[in-house]
Design a protein that fits this description.
By secondary structure, the chain is an alpha+beta fold. The protein folds into two domains: 169 residues, no CATH class; 136 residues, no CATH class. 34% of the residues lie in helices and 28% in strands. It has a six-stranded antiparallel beta sheet, sandwiched between helices. A hairpin with an 8-residue loop joins strand 8 and strand 9. Helix 5 runs parallel beside helix 9. It is globular and about 80 Å long.
């Protein structure tokens, strides 16, 4: 779990990165700086660090089997070796980012490279290097008191609650590509540009990765196989999703055999699930373990993508959180309509 309570900004460099595709330019600042004002320091700290809440970690991927061929890895390593290298490292990073900004959808913006002290991970305190890009500008109204009357002026600036792209590299496990956390508020095609093309990252195969992907497997199985096209009622689909997420919420350790017995249950469905798992692993180029420690943060992150709503025409939305045995589906021939019968003890 990341903790930034004791973290302090040690140094900052800012450069301006244009869109190379549109003949934009790169403008480099001449030096590092550190704000003297404590309020500005705290605002910047909040702007850079507050969006990082997930425990999904990445690492730098080797290029041609050598981590030092990964430009961002080798550049960040130079800062961890000697913090006075920050400015030179930022120039290399700025040029690399500019070279990757060769697509009409990539926005121009400011690049920040920041050296942090005293970030805390599970392993203890560590330094970190942050690479941030701000692209979105907002309009603000400024109130000016002129003698005894007020006037308004508009200004364009950065909204400190909207960080567009970010990467935080912790000085932990450097020989394996460091511990890296990322943020990208843009679409998936731009995420490839930021995460893969520019940073050269791959996700760590840890408990968060395993938990997150197994829950995605369950969700995709229900959507693509255990669905109405294969004569599975919508209520049964929701029940399968509910039982899947409940298993992970209650289990400290995931065991695939227990999961299939308790959640999937039916032998025919288990066979279909196993076939789909093989397809999911091949499609996503990953390997899911049959036993791992459950990541509670991954369960929390993935739970919001599990839908529990049964939509009936335009008249009713039924939220199903309980067990399937408390809901029955039927058909009324007199009305020529389907119906659901719900069983409950108390009405709130």
């Amino acid at each position: 779990m990341m903790n930034f309570d004791t973290c302090e900004i040690n140094n900052i460099v800012i450069h301006d990165i244009g869109n190379k595709y549109e003949d934009g330019q790169i403008r480099l600042s001449e030096s590092c700086f550190l704000p003297d004002d404590a309020d500005v320091h705290n605002l910047l700290k909040s702007y850079f660090l507050s969006p990082f809440k997930k425990d999904a970690y990445y690492r730098f991927a080797p290029v041609e089997d050598d981590l030092y061929n990964n430009l961002v890895y080798s550049t960040v390593s130079s800062v961890f070796e000697d913090e006075s290298n920050l400015y030179e490292a930022s120039v290399n990073i700025a040029q690399h980012l500019f070279d990757q900004s060769n697509h009409p959808n990539i926005k121009a913006g400011e690049l920040y490279m920041v050296h942090f002290k005293n970030c805390v991970l599970e392993e203890g305190p560590c330094d970190a290097v942050g690479i941030f890009k701000s692209e979105t500008k907002d309009t603000f109204l400024k109130i000016i008191l002129n003698e005894n009357s007020y006037q308004l002026e508009s200004e364009r600036g950065i909204n400190i609650k909207k960080l567009d792209k970010a990467c935080l590299v912790f000085n932990v496990d450097g020989e394996n590509g460091y511990r890296v956390s990322i943020l990208d508020k843009t679409n998936s095609s731009e995420a490839v540009y930021w995460t893969t093309d520019f940073l050269g990252l791959e996700q760590c195969d840890d408990n968060y990765f395993q938990t997150s992907n197994y829950l995605k497997l369950c969700k995709d199985f229900v959507q693509e196989v255990y669905n109405q096209e294969n004569d599975i009622p919508k209520a049964d689909q929701i029940d399968m999703l509910n039982r899947s997420i409940d298993y992970f919420k209650k289990a400290d350790v995931f065991n695939e055999n227990l999961f299939k017995d308790e959640v999937v249950n039916d032998p025919q469905i288990i066979n279909a699930f196993e076939d789909f798992k093989n397809y999911y692993e091949e499609k996503n180029e990953l390997s899911l373990k049959d036993q791992f420690d459950v990541s509670n943060s991954a369960v929390k992150d993935e739970k919001r993508f599990f839908k529990h709503i049964l939509k009936l025409d335009k008249n009713f939305h039924v939220y199903i959180h309980g067990q399937k045995k408390y809901i029955e589906k039927g058909y009324d021939s007199a009305r020529d309509m389907n119906y659901y019968k719900l069983y409950f003890r108390e009405e709130n």
